[in-house]
Specification:
mainly alpha, 127 residues
């Protein structure tokens, strides 16, 4: 089981690298680039949309959202171009950058969500 998870995690990391390369390729359609940017930014963000300390739900984003985003992004890239990006990612040894902007976006989403809940509760209490 542990070997299977390690293999799955390594493949996920390799796909993120290939998507990062695809995002920089001018032949990739714009819609795919937008989705790729979101997926890569989320994968590189040090902050999760659903924090991991929340039981069960905390890992759903890592187990469902990220692979689903990767799958969809790959589907939007032409097959031959995706193959080239995968090969380039396998050949190149590079360190993926950490995205502070992505972390800021996640913090902003959480802030808006918390403010919305607070406003809703305030409306409930006063009304």
């Amino acid at each position: 089981m542990a070997a299977t998870l390690k293999t799955w995690a390594a493949a996920l990391k390799q796909h993120i690298r290939a998507l990062y390369l695809a995002m920089k390729d001018p032949r990739v359609p714009r819609l795919a680039k937008v989705l790729i940017a979101l997926v890569v930014a989320y994968a590189l963000s040090p902050i999760d949309l659903i924090p991991d300390f929340i039981p069960i739900l905390g890992y759903l984003d890592d187990l469902l959202l990220l692979p689903l985003g990767i799958w969809l992004a790959i589907r939007l890239i032409p097959a031959d171009l995706w193959a080239q990006c995968k090969e380039a990612a396998a050949r190149q040894a590079f360190e993926m950058p950490r995205s502070r902007r992505a972390a800021a976006v996640i913090v902003l989403i959480w802030g808006v969500a918390l403010l919305s809940v607070a406003f809703w509760l305030w409306q409930l209490a006063s009304g």
